Amino acid sequence: MGISKLVAKTINYVRTAGKSSILQTNVDKLKNLKYGKLFYNKSALQLDDIAYHGSPYKFEQFDVKMIGQGEGAAKRGKGIYLFRTKKFAPYFANIKSQDAPLHLGVSKPISNPNPHVYTVEGIKSMNLKKVSLVESKNISRMQENFERNYPNVDGIEMPNGEICVFPKAVDKLKIKYIDKLEDFITLNRGFPFRVWTKDKSKLI
Questions:
Q1: Residue 194 has what pLDDT?
Q2: CA 22 to each of CA 15, 52, 63, 120, 173: distance values in angstroms, whole numbers, following the listed order
Q3: Computed over its alpha carbons, how large is the radius of gyration of the chain?
Q4: Considering only CA atoms, which of 118, 84, 111, 78 is closest in space to residue 97?
């Protein structure tokens, strides 16, 4: 295994094990990284409290004033969009790239200032209403009425793991990691991401 791949796997291990330093990890387990095995502490990872957000911009915390500045479609309602898995985050981080596929009726690609992927915590503390894709479209058309009828609901979650956190609950989100798009892809080498660029070399 090349040194860069080993470093990437080691960094990923430290993160998923919930450690702040490589010195806190189990040496025997780290030795197995060279064989492509990745060990992690599921309880420390809190799988149900982790989600991912892809954005063409870099920021330190979510700001409700910036809602609509990314993809801008709000197809599931107005709010911050997250994903339970890593699959879609890089795609939406690169949505405004010069080489990204045209998307959502955009007539021409526009510049992508600073694409990043955010690992987010705070989902576990939220009251998310699970809805179908059809229901989510109806909610997006009448979101004010929906929020009035369900005042304790912080957002909605679709069957595919897509989450829309309503503006009123955005302050419950905490950004755990901020990764440049290329770094996120490298740290998760081999993960079956949704295709987000025409330039395949960027995925290597």
A1: 73
A2: 9, 23, 32, 22, 26
A3: 18
A4: 111
Distance of CA 113 to the CA centre of its chain: 18
pTM for the model stands at 0.69
**In the beta sheet, which residues pair with residue 77?**
75
Q: Which residue has the tokens 């045209």?
A: 102
Whether the Cβ atoms of residue 162 and residue 83 lie closer than 8 Å to each other: yes
Q: Please measure the distance between the N-terminal and C-terminal CA atoms of the chain and give it in whole angstroms.
A: 15
Instruction: Render pLDDT for 99-125 as a digit per residue (tens, 0 to 9).
Output: 665 444 455 555 677 889 999 999 999
Identify whether the C-beta of residue 176 lies closer than 8 Å to the C-beta of residue 64. Answer: no
pLDDT level of residue 84 (50, 70, 90 thresholds): very high
Query: Any idea of the CA torsion for 86, 91, 94, 99, to the nearest 10 degrees?
Result: 140
Tell how many helices (H) and how many strands (E) occur in the chain.
Answer: 7, 7
Listed by start position, the domains of the chain span 1-45, 46-186
